[in-house]
Design brief:
Blueprint: H1 7-19, E1 22-23, H2 24-37, H3 47-58, E2 63-69, E3 76-82, H4 97-112, E4 118-119, H5 120-124, H6 137-149, E5 153-156, E6 159-162, H7 164-177, E7 183-184, E8 191-192, E9 195-197, E10 204-206, H8 207-214, H9 248-256
Helix pairs in contact: 1-2
Length: 258
C-alpha cells in the first residue's frame, strides 16, 4: 500500500512543477522546508523515499518525478515528467508550430553532432528552410533565447546543447528516434548527449562520469572491454588527444580506417 500523500508532498510537487527543473541541493532544501512547514517527519537522507511516495500517487496520472544529471558538472536535477505525452508534443501548448519545427531541427543537429553541440550559425541557417513557414534569422534568434530561458536548450559562446530538463523529459523519445547514435552512459545509465566513447567497444560515458571513474588512475581502461581509454581524461597526467564523441558508430568507423 502506498504511503500517505501529505501537504508537504503536495507543496514539494507544486514547486517542482512550477520550476520546470530543480537542482539537487535545492530539492533537498525544498524537502526540508516542506516537511518543517507542514510539520511532518523529516530526515535529510530520505529525499528519495519522499519522492517515491509522490510518484506512487502520480502513477495513475501517468506522471513521474525523475532524476537526471547535468552533463556539464554531474550535479543531480529533478523534473516532473508527463509520461502520457511524447517528444515535443509536451511543448505544444507553449510554442507555435514553426517554433516547434525549429526546435526539432535544432535537436537533430545537436544529437547527430560528434560533440553534442550545434553552433548558432548552423541553427540560424535552418530558419529559411523550415517547412511550416520560413523564419527570419532575427526571429530565430529570439526563439532560441526563449528555449534557453525555458530550460530546453543551454547556450555557451554561441554553441547550443540540450538542457538537463530536456534530456530528462525527452530521454525515451530520443533513444527511440535516434537509435543509431543515442546511447546511455555506461556508468550512470542516463542518456548521454555529451560523452567520451571507447574506440574499442563503442560504449559512451558522460564527461563528469569519466572524471569520477578514472580519477587518480594513470592508465585508465574501459569499464566494459578493459582496453586502454584513449580519450584525454581530466585529472590523469598522460599524453593523449582529447576526443569528445557523441556517436559511437562514428568513433568505431574512424578507428577502423586508421
Amino acid at each position: 500500500m502506498a504511503a500517505q500523500m501529505t501537504n508537504a508532498h503536495r507543496r514539494f510537487l507544486q514547486v517542482l512543477m512550477s520550476n520546470g527543473i530543480t537542482e539537487g541541493s535545492e530539492a533537498r532544501k525544498l524537502h526540508q522546508h516542506c516537511c518543517e512547514t507542514d510539520k511532518v517527519y523529516y530526515a535529510h537522507d530520505k529525499l528519495d523515499d519522499f519522492i517515491s511516495t509522490i510518484n506512487s500517487h502520480l502513477q495513475p496520472l501517468f506522471m513521474q518525478i525523475r532524476k537526471g544529471i547535468s552533463e556539464e558538472d554531474g550535479r543531480a536535477h529533478y523534473a516532473v515528467v508527463n509520461l502520457a505525452e511524447t517528444e515535443v508534443t509536451k511543448m505544444a501548448s507553449d510554442y507555435t508550430e514553426i517554433e516547434l519545427e525549429l526546435f526539432r531541427k535544432t535537436m537533430d543537429l545537436i544529437i547527430l553532432s560528434e560533440n553534442g553541440f550545434a553552433s548558432s550559425t548552423d541553427i540560424l541557417n535552418l530558419a529559411d528552410q523550415l517547412k511550416t513557414k520560413k523564419m527570419k534569422k532575427k526571429e530565430a534568434e529570439q526563439v532560441l533565447k526563449v528555449f534557453v530561458e525555458d530550460k530546453w536548450l543551454s547556450e555557451k559562446n554561441g554553441e547550443y546543447t540540450l538542457h538537463t530538463r530536456c534530456i530528462i523529459e525527452m530521454e525515451q523519445y530520443i533513444l527511440s528516434n535516434y537509435q543509431d547514435v543515442a546511447r546511455k552512459c555506461n556508468l550512470c545509465h542516463s542518456l548521454a548527449i555529451q560523452s567520451q566513447v571507447c574506440e574499442s567497444c563503442g560504449i559512451g560515458m558522460h564527461l563528469p562520469c569519466v572524471r569520477k571513474y578514472f580519477r587518480g588512475q594513470t592508465e585508465p581502461r574501459c569499464p566494459k572491454c578493459n582496453e586502454f581509454w584513449s580519450c584525454d581524461t581530466p585529472g590523469v597526467n598522460r599524453m593523449g588527444s582529447q576526443t569528445y564523441h557523441r556517436a559511437p558508430l562514428l568513433a568505431l568507423d574512424a578507428a577502423s580506417k586508421t
